[in-house]
Amino acid sequence: MIEKGVTPDAWSYNAIQAYYHCDHCEVNRALRLLSRMEKDNYKPDRHTYNMVLKLLIRIGRFDRETEIWESMGKRGFYPSVSTYSVMIHSLCKKKHKLE
């Protein structure tokens, strides 16, 4: 797309995130794409964050999940009901974190 002069939009980034990075558990690439979106002035939306958070939960990277969660407000994103649901699911998967 870029070689043809077409700038990706949030939908394009989310498609790459979903069908390549998250489906293939490419954590570092998923996080780099998240940073790239911001660099290119496309704010990640609830779909972007939910995909990345679910990926981090799936592979057990609760430390990175918490880091992403805490950085969302700094980036101007405030979680939706679906994002809270992802986090509740995560807390249920962690031992002794349900409280």
UniProtKB/TrEMBL annotation:
Keywords: Repeat
NCBIfam families the record matches: PPR
Disulfide bond in keyword set: no
Stretches that traverse the bilayer: none
PROSITE patterns: PPR
InterPro entries: PPR_rpt, TPR-like_helical_dom_sf
PANTHER family: OS03G0856100 PROTEIN, PENTACOTRIPEPTIDE-REPEAT REGION OF PRORP DOMAIN-CONTAINING PROTEIN
Pfam families: PPR_2
Family: Belongs to the PPR family. P subfamily.
Name of the protein this chain belongs to: Pentatricopeptide repeat-containing protein
Intervals holding PPR repeats: 45-79
Top-level lineage group: Eukaryota
